[in-house]
Write a structure and sequence with these properties.
The protein is an alpha/beta fold and 524 residues long. It has 3 domains: 38-69 and 301-429 and 436-475, Rossmann fold, CATH 3.40.50.10490; 96-285, Rossmann fold (3-Layer(aba) Sandwich), CATH 3.40.50; 483-523. The chain has 20 helices and 13 strands. A 6-stranded mixed beta sheet has the order 1-2-13-12-10-11, with helices on both faces. A 5-stranded parallel beta sheet has the order 6-5-7-8-9, with helices on both faces. A hairpin with a 2-residue loop joins strand 1 (40-43) and strand 2. Helix 15 packs parallel to helix 18. It is globular. The model has no long low-confidence stretch (mean pLDDT 97). The structure holds 6-O-phosphono-alpha-D-glucopyranose. Residues 150-153, 202-204, 207, 210, 263-264, 349, 482, 485 line the site of 6-O-phosphono-alpha-D-glucopyranose.
């Protein structure tokens, strides 16, 4: 395939950009006051307002031509077919199958029966825990469920548990990710072991942080309830069930999920168990249904009205034509605080790549740095950089239409701030005092959710998943592997003896750093 940077449709887009002559969304709005309706697209029950992006209808048409030239419709079809689109690991990426009821084959095997079995086991187990039929070793019902996982095995459940707090009527969900034992101590310090259930979520069941936290949790349970208590206080969600049983879990406490579920796409699988326990399986089903509704649209809607595709095309436009090296995700909802790290992992692990699917070094930029955080607190922290910093940046605002708390007026104020920020970023302001002036011309999309509930949350997350896949397909990269994270893990292993003070560091720079750390450790 011709590299993205040399594809004729892209070269045409660059010429179109030059012809636009830096026209901003503000100028485009002046020229066409009906632009709002034309550039607002529905996605399941979400609405995406693209009208503050510096694009004309012609730009969007050319971007869609780029998508066709890059084979995006074929890539979407391949994704849904169960083909091994994750080429370096020779795996399908079929997380969509977890939220639908279609027969899809992977390697000649229909995956639906296995998925339905898994969903049924989740339903029965979460119900038993929520209704108090599943009891701890002392006979006490579960009041706290603690997810032990990291990365893809934690970000999704953690985000969803917090986002759905308003309907969480089961045991309280907690999450421990860090290798730093302080997080473990601080979390379990407030819990009663007799009423605590741990869900070890790890696709590989080898990840250092998760296994360290699982070992600490087992010691904590055994210390107060005895060695026999493990069976009543631990379950696992994993694609390596044999490792989980080798760890000491009864086979009936292991909830396996298939290899073709990528870590950062695993919320929809048994990894979502802490969420199902906290909000109930009916609500979890709605989360799946909301995501499924987006899957259907992504698969079948024309590119011109296909929201994940348009998000991806605009991202490529901002990144490669307009030079935005960073992208901010700004949910105006306190309960959506987990969205930014979730999207960050999705985008940066999937598309933070420097070679294409054939291994050829790329000569164009890929994933932007993603950061951000909830509005309005971010307005008092990093938004200054958005308004007056020297770098080009694009933004996603996420607004919930219906009030989330008890005070409707405060919700109106929250909405006003979200709208004000995107307007200020687009329009800027010119004043005689240069330090007050804001240049404007910053691109943003606003995603409106009718309500913060399971269905719309599912839709929002699937929207981002498919955006990231489409973007990777346009660039010609494999969005489903993450080899870059392995190097640091390997080096940490070789440094560990020296970090413990029991060996020599593998290189001079590390030896120096460890000596500084060890010296300060002893100084207290
Ligand atoms: O689920 P696990 O096998 O424990 O993996 C947890 C996480 O760690 C890895 O290093 C990857 O970077 C993530 O994509 C993955 O989700």
């Amino acid at each position: 395939m011709i590299p993205f940077s040399r594809s004729p449709a892209w070269l045409q887009l660059l010429a179109h950009r030059d012809a636009l002559g830096g026209k901003t969304a503000r100028e485009l709005w002046r020229a066409d006051p009906a632009r709002g309706a034309k550039l607002t697209v529905g996605c399941a029950e979400l609405a995406l307002d693209f009208s503050k992006q510096p694009v004309s209808e012609e730009t969007l048409a050319s971007l869609c031509a780029l998508a066709r030239e890059r084979g995006l419709p074929e890539a979407i079809a391949a994704l849904f077919s169960g083909a091994p689109v994750n080429t370096t690991e020779r795996r399908a990426a079929l997380h969509m199958a977890l939220r639908g009821d279609e027969h899809t084959t992977v390697g000649g095997v229909d995956v639906l029966p296995e998925i339905q079995r898994g969903r049924e086991r989740m339903r029965m187990f979460s119900q038993a825990v929520r209704e108090g039929h599943w009891k701890g070793a002392t006979g006490a019902p579960v009041r706290h469920v603690v997810g032990l996982g990291i990365g893809g095995s934690s970000l999704g459940p953690k985000l969803a548990a917090k986002a759905l707090h308003a309907i969480a009527d089961g045991p309280q969900a907690h999450f421990i990710e860090n290798l730093d034992p302080a997080e473990f101590d601080d979390t379990v310090g407030r819990l009663d072991p007799a009423a605590t259930l741990f869900v070890i979520a790890s696709k590989t069941f080898t990840t250092e942080e998760t296994m360290a936290n699982a070992a600490s949790a087992r010691a904590w349970i055994e210390r107060s309830l005895g060695p026999g208590a493990v069976d009543r206080h631990f379950v696992a969600a994993t694609a390596s069930p044999e490792r989980a049983t080798a760890w000491g879990l009864a086979a009936c406490n292991v909830f396996p999920f298939p290899e073709w579920v990528g870590g950062r796409f695993s919320l929809w699988s048994e990894v979502g168990l802490p969420v199902a326990i906290a909000v109930g399986m009916t609500a979890f089903d709605r989360l799946l249904a909301g995501a499924h509704a987006v899957d259907l649209e992504f698969r079948s809607k024309p590119l011109e009205r296909n929201a994940p595709v348009l998000l991806a095309l605009l991202s490529v436009w901002n990144r490669n034509a307009l030079g935005c090296a960073s992208h901010v995700v700004l949910p105006y909802a306190a309960r959506l605080t987990g969205l930014t790290p979730y999207v960050q992992a999705l985008e940066m692990e999937s598309n933070g790549k420097r070679v294409d699917r054939d291994g050829t070094l790329l000569d164009f930029a890929t994933a932007p740095a993603v950061f951000g955080g909830e509005g309005t607190p971010g307005q008092h922290a990093f938004h200054q950089w958005l308004h007056q910093g020297t770098d080009a940046v694009s933004s996603d605002f996420i607004v919930v239409a219906r009030p989330m708390g008890s005070d409707a007026d405060r919700h109106a104020r929250l909405v006003a701030h979200a709208a004000a920020q995107s307007e200020a970023l687009m329009n800027g302001v010119e004043t005689p005092e240069p330090w007050r002036s804001c240049p404007g011309g910053r691109a943003s999309t606003t995603i409106v959710m009718p309500a913060l509930d399971p269905f719309h949350l599912g839709s929002l997350l699937a929207l981002y998943e498919h955006k990231v896949f489409a973007e990777g397909a346009l660039w010609g990269i494999n969005s489903f592997d993450q080899w870059g994270v392995e190097l640091g893990k390997k080096i940490a292993g070789s440094i560990l003896p020296a970090a413990r003070g029991e060996g020599t560091a593998p290189d001079a720079a590390t030896a120096h750093l460890l000596s500084v750390i060890h010296k300060l450790a002893q100084s207290g």
